[in-house]
Amino acid sequence: MSEVKVLGLTWGQVSPAMLTLPPVDVILGSDCFYDPKDFEDVIATVFYFLQKNPQAKFWTTYQERSSDWSIEALLKRWKLTCVHIPLTLFGADSPSLGGSDLPGNHSIQMLQITNS
Prior knowledge:
Elements: H1 16-19, E1 26-30, H2 39-52, E2 57-63, H3 72-77, E3 80-85, E4 96-97, E5 100-101, E6 108-115
Parallel strand pairs: 1-2
Antiparallel strand pairs: 2-6, 3-6, 4-5
């Protein structure tokens, strides 16, 4: 790997920098599903990248903040598929994640989102 491109963006908006990106295989996002009012903008942006790169995969983690919040309907609307990745697969299921002790009891989830 000679270069990794990191791009700041605004969810729901396609910037000129996004239009000039070379093809990608993996898109990483951390804690993108923080506020339900932004969920569709996040999904719309992911959809843009996956349409431009049909074989790409969007890997994301998020902290489960409410059992009432879900992206399932949005995934269906945007024709995307989601697979839950158990943190136990790579030993990331302890209360101390990445050497950081988060206060309280947190449920961290990992997802892989792709085209349907």
